[in-house]
């Protein structure tokens, strides 16, 4: 097994069971032991300091009698300091009190947040889009995910020169795993190798930075050229998920990626629970990445449209929601009476229009007492002999049931707004069409139908946030708007692992179709990398600001309440071309984020947990006054209020430019918004000017935020920031 650099041959043991046998939220190997992460902050600058020796000495002091049983799981020694180890509760307490230990927290399990899209956003193939080839070739995207399929054409190094000189990483992908001049590095943090078995990591990597590969499709669907935003860039893959995505592996990957020299980190991983920043491995890793000039792009999560369901909340990360494009896949159903219904499915099966008998789940019940559950096609409620060779009709659909019961196809009610891949011809009908379909079954003497192969349909409607995309508000920092941005996450065709079958058999495909914020995240990461090719010296916050302030405006969707507002899509939909020339940017430094954390009244210990260093709060910034590209404030009541935001913009457009402010109210909002000064006159590049936004009003709707947009325009650039003011009951952070 290939191991990461922080492992030592002197370790007493390597624990394979960590990722193979755990099914709980915390890893156990004995009833009284579990894996804890011992976070020790920044690495000391002393030349004689050896992290591994320090980590081993701590363990030897704490576990004198049982050193054989309690093993060092992994050590962090490249970008920050710490280790993971199996400890009893009493041992954990002793370690937590030791000098140099910042925090000790349990090793949690996180989740993966699982072509035409780039054309849709304006990044055209070939010479249709302006590029900076030499800088793009020196740009490295670190993909923290479930591994990668190195043999995919999307990662071929044909035409590539050697890796950038700044690259300090290695290829430690495991047995029979080879890197090349495109896929320049690979690491894994669990037994096995860096090879992707689920398809998730391969898919996300190719979305962000995959080569342009012609004549690709999923069984003919989406036929064309698959490519990433920056196809000439390099990829470094860090396999942090092997069935499960553990905190200790994620921190190890951040540790390595930062030291390896990546430029952008994309991580389509998250939790369904919110943890404080000091106990969130992604927030901690991203803070260290930010301090080294690396932007971390994180998926918002797939637990929408519930209010306050978003878990990627740190302001130093770019948090990405998922939305539609102008393409969707549909699967038509042709009834025996000639009527055609249009449903959703990514269905690559072609039954040549042949009609088959229909059987409603209820009439295929294994017994009269099972009729109710048979309507939902529960597996134990259906008689396979009544289903075999027919089209199974269900009130709701469990994909494998129709397949295992011998149905030739399936039709079911589906209220979702995205299509899925199934192992047989399937069509999901909206409620009204499904009711019409059931009426046909009841009225026809011998009802039959044909489920047609899916086809792509194109529309000109504005993108909409998908129902599954997690929503704000931010339950840790109420005055920081999350998500930040939205990007395509619907039915994205991208590279797949040949270990991952899209069906319930051994079928292998080189390219597959997936939906989720896992797909929107690498879209935004690709855009961030694209911007960096034109502005290599821009800080993470500058890139983030450019993305947010140039976004396409979004309209309220049909979910109602918070789920339809900026808490669904943030600043809007990413616009890659405009983001390369934003005009003005809102810049932030590590010191600003520390002042922001001080403003949250964190004590010295908690500050060290997040930043990895001793912090003295010489300055405090109110949440709402962090120089963020969006403006948000949660009010204590809906009575008369006045709230003020302070912001500073930096001119990155043209010298001798004058920006005038305009405020646009949204959703019939009755806010009063004043900008002072209302005009900014820039004399030179990189000049900074400060302004204030004062928002006043009364009697806010507790079920819907009031919002507006501030636009600074010089006639060429339109620099837009959402302003959101809200009240009402919003979930608070649960206890850790």
Low-confidence stretches: 1-31
> Which structural category do the helix and sheet elements fall into?
alpha/beta
Q: What would the average pLDDT be, to the nearest integer?
A: 89
Largest sheet: 8 strands, mixed
Roughly what percent helix?
A: 10-25%
Q: Please give the number of β-strands.
A: 36
Instruction: Report Rg.
Output: 27 Å
Our measurement of the CA-to-CA distance between the termini, rounded to an integer number of angstroms, reads 35 Å
* Tally of alpha and pi helices: 18
Which shape, going by the Cα principal axes?
A: globular
Strand content: 25-35%
Organism: Camelina sativa
Pfam family, one: fn3_6
Keywords: Hydrolase, Protease, Serine protease, Signal
Protein name: Subtilisin-like protease SBT4.11
Give a structural overview.
This protein is an alpha/beta fold. A hairpin with a 5-residue loop joins β3 (72-76) and β4 (82-87). It is globular and about 80 Å long. The relative contact order is 0.11. The model is unreliable at 1-31 (pLDDT under 50). Residues 1-25 form the signal peptide.
Task: Summarize this structure briefly.
The chain is an alpha/beta fold. 21% of the residues lie in helices and 26% in strands.
């Amino acid at each position: 097994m290939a191991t990461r650099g922080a492992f030592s041959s002197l370790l007493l043991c390597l624990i394979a069971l960590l990722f193979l046998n755990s099914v709980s939220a915390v890893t156990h190997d004995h009833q009284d032991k579990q894996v804890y992460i011992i976070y020790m902050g920044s690495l000391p600058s002393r030349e004689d300091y050896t992290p591994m020796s320090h980590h081993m000495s701590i363990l030897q002091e704490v576990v004198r009698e049982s050193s054989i049983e309690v093993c060092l799981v992994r050590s962090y020694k490249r970008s920050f300091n710490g280790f993971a180890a199996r400890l009893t509760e009493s041992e954990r307490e002793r370690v937590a009190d030791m000098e140099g230990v910042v925090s000790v927290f349990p090793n949690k399990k996180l989740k993966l947040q699982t072509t035409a899209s780039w054309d849709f956003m304006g990044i055209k193939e070939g010479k249709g889009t302006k590029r900076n080839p030499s800088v793009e070739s020196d740009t490295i995207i670190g993909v923290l995910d479930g591994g990668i399929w190195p043999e995919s054409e999307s990662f071929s190094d044909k035409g590539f020169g050697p890796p950038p000189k700044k690259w300090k990483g290695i290829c430690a992908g495991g047995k029979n795993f080879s890197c090349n001049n495109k896929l320049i590095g690979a690491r894994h943090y669990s037994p096995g190798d860096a090879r992707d078995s689920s398809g998730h990591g391969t898919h996300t990597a190719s979305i962000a930075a995959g080569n342009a590969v012609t004549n690709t499709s999923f069984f003919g669907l989406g036929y064309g050229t698959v490519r990433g935003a920056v196809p000439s860039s390099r990829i470094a893959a860090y396999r942090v998920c092997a069935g499960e995505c553990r905190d200790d592996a994620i921190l190890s990957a951040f540790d390595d990626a930062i030291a390896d020299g990546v430029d952008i980190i994309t991580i389509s991983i998250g939790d369904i629970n919110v943890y404080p920043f000091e106990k969130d491995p992604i927030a901690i890793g991203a803070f260290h990445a930010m301090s080294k000039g690396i932007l971390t792009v994180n998926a918002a999560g797939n637990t929408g449209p519930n209010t306050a369901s978003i878990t990627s909340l740190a302001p130093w990360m770019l948090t990405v929601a998922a939305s539609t494009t102008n393409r969707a896949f549909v699967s038509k159903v042709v009834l025996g009476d000639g009527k055609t219904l249009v449903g959703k499915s990514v269905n690559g099966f072609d039954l040549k229009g042949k009609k088959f008998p229909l059987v409603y789940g209820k009439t295929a019940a294994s017994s009269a007492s099972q009729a109710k559950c048979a309507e939902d096609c529960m597996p134990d409620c259906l008689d396979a002999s009544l289903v075999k060779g027919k089209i199974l009709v269900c009130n709701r659909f469990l994909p494998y049931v129709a397949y295992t019961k011998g149905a030739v196809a399936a039709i079911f009610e589906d209220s979702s707004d995205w299509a899925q891949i199934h192992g047989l011809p399937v069509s999901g009908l909206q409620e009204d069409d499904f009711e019409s379909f059931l009426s046909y079954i009841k009225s026809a003497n011998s009802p039959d139908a044909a489920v047609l192969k899916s086809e792509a349909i194109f529309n000109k409607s504005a993108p909409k946030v998908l129902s599954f995309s997690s929503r704000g508000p931010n339950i840790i920092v109420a005055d920081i708007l999350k998500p930040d941005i939205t990007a395509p996450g619907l039915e994205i065709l991208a590279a797949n692992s040949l270990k991952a079958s899209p069906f319930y058999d051994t079928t292998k495909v080189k390219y597959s179709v997936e939906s989720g914020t896992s797909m929107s995240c690498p879209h935004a990461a690709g855009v961030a990398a694209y911007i960096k090719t034109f502005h290599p010296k821009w800080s993470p916050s500058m890139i983030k600001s450019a993305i947010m302030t140039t976004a396409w405006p979004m309209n309220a969707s049909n979910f109602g309440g918070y789920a339809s507002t900026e808490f669904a899509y943030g600043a809007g939909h990413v616009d890659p071309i405009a983001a390369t020339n934003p005009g003005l940017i809102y810049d932030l430094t590590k010191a600003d984020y520390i002042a922001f954390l001080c403003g949250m009244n964190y004590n010295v210990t908690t500050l060290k947990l997040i930043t990895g260093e001793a912090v003295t709060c010489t300055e405090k910034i109110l949440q709402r006054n962090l120089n963020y590209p969006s403006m948000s404030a949660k009010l204590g009541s809906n009575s008369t209020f006045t709230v003020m935001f302070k912001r500073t913009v930096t001119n990155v457009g043209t010298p001798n430019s004058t920006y005038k402010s305009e405020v646009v109210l949204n959703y019939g909002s009755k806010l009063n918004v004043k900008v002072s000064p209302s005009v900014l006159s820039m004399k030179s590049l990189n000049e900074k000017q400060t302004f204030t936004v004062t928002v006043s009003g009364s009697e806010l709707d507790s079920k819907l935020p009031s919002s507006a947009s501030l636009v600074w325009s010089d006639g060429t650039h339109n620099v837009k920031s959402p302003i959101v003011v809200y009240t009402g009951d919003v979930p608070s952070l649960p206890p850790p």
